[in-house]
Design brief:
It is a single chain. By secondary structure, the chain is α+β, with helices and mostly antiparallel strands. The protein has 3 domains: 141 residues, 3-Layer(aba) Sandwich (Creatine Amidinohydrolase, Chain A, domain 1); 138 residues, Creatine Amidinohydrolase, Chain A, domain 1 (3-Layer(aba) Sandwich), CATH 3.40.350.10; 291 residues, Creatinase/methionine aminopeptidase superfamily (Creatine Amidinohydrolase, Alpha-Beta Complex), CATH 3.90.230.10. It has 21 helices and 28 strands. A 6-stranded mixed beta sheet has the order 4-3-2-1-5-6. A 6-stranded mixed beta sheet has the order 12-11-10-8-13-14, with helices on both faces. It has a 4-stranded antiparallel beta sheet with strand order 21-28-27-24. Helix 12 links the parallel strand 13 and strand 14.
Length: 612
Amino acid sequence: MTTPPPRFQTFDDPSHAKGPERIEALRAALREVGADGFVVPRADEHQSEYVPADAERLAWLTGFTGSAGLAAVLADEAALFVDGRYTLQAPEQVDTATVTVVPLAETTPEAWLGTHLKPGQVLAYDPWLHTPDGVARLERAATKAGASLRAVPDNLVDAVWAGRPRPPAGRVTVHPDDLAGETVPEKLDRIRAALVQGAIDVLVISDPHNLAWAFNLRGADIPHTPLALGYALVPREGRAALYLTSGAIEAALRTRLEPLADLRPRSAFTEDLDGLCRNAARVRLDAATGAAALKDGVEAAGGVADVGADPVTAMKAVKNAAEIAGARAAHHRDGLAVTRFLAWLDRAAAEGVSEIAAVEALEDFRRESGLLRDVSFPTISGSGPNGAIVHYRVTRATDRKARPGELFLIDSGAQYADGTTDITRTVAIGTPTDEMRDRFTRVLKGHIAIARAVFPEGTTGAQIDALARIGLWEAGLDYDHGTGHGVGAFLSVHEGPQRIAKTGTVALKPGMILSNEPGYYRSRAYGIRIENLILVEERTIPGGDRPMLGFETLTLAPIDRRLIDPALLAPAEAEWLDAYHARVREALAPDLDGPVRTWLEAATRPLAEAAA
């Protein structure tokens, strides 16, 4: 009997019982170094969203497992700062008698520190876990309070973390040129051209995503994202150097890279960077991922720290023809799996399906292709009130079965060698209420508004974010997360710099892939989100006099029509939905048979026909 492969996700319930004990241990460490407070961001030395186990300091200290957050621990109080995605989750995970959960919508960490630090106190921080801009904000907060800010050479959480996991050392492999669409020499030439244009002597690549893109490699150091941790130095002239945390570099990759770059141990990175700085070199450090410690080191070695955008970030965001073809293939494959899952969920719901059972079933359907490399993030599988927790992660302790009259929200994604997917569907279990149908239809209207949007070149995500919210605003409703994030090509499911959000200030360009995911959440009752991935493409408008852009929807899976109130849809919106469903049916039906094909044909009928 063949043993099934281990799942890509677990459902362990993180223990939070030791939170107060661990915070007291941290306070003892503070006293030993003569400090009065310590800032603990959810970050590693690359400022990553998803971090390896040895960098999960915030989770270990407080119990909060979200992908973004920051704790400030002072001698007599502590606060955890979270954004709108985690305002429900955080209080459930932390000991609120020890740690006060503070929504970022109410105040920032810097504002809080400015009023809670006392004159003469010392606030400590780890310079590898903050950007220079982040340190400057902390400095202003400490100064406002009459306190001082001090970098510590060793992280104080690490000093008290017994049994801290070892750093990752996953295998580093080749990402084939036919999937990358561009060779490493071609990419290095583009990078060096950008350095010449910016009068930059050396680029420090501190973002592992950019490292993976620039050198056509993939790794296994981070859960669900194929990254190899490390750095690269790319001089304007001369050989590049690559510093990977892991030494497990496959022979084929080593053979490819050795003519182009020196493969150096991670431990040599700081010394090599110092050597490049001795002639007053101008060194570009990425403002988003370059640690304050890098800036300090460059300046101490005699270099000029030029903190700005890593040019690789913008290059990576615009997908080439090969990457776009890969994305379409991955979404077709993923659409088949998700459709099989939705058909299964409709059958299983009659007997009561649990959140964990849904996660496992969806992963199994994706595995059937034989091409699944990983899930792209832990699946959000929330029934009833759990669906209202935006980034809910089911555990064995929270698992519940969906009940008739509830909604089931499942947000998931997959990693394939040719593309990364991310899709959310909200499904009616039994008969939905009129309120549920109203809210769902308003979210759908916003989704359609983004999908149909046509806009001039130079438009940013912030300029179109409101389109997704108008239907909700008309009813006095809204949601507290962005409408869309960038997505990588067999890289991170959350990729910048593009995004559709109030903070999305980067102009959208053809070739960028983003999510389209408006939502609505009624606390402790239900959650609604409809998510497809979209590709920015050029559009020609007859009679127009400006270059225009629009979106191609990549995701292929039915949207639950049982939750739609047709009276709320404008004719053009209903036409879009019917056309989308016809496209889904035409694309997927030939590769489905039996009950699933029959289910798909019923689920994608025209809206008017279904209403009748």
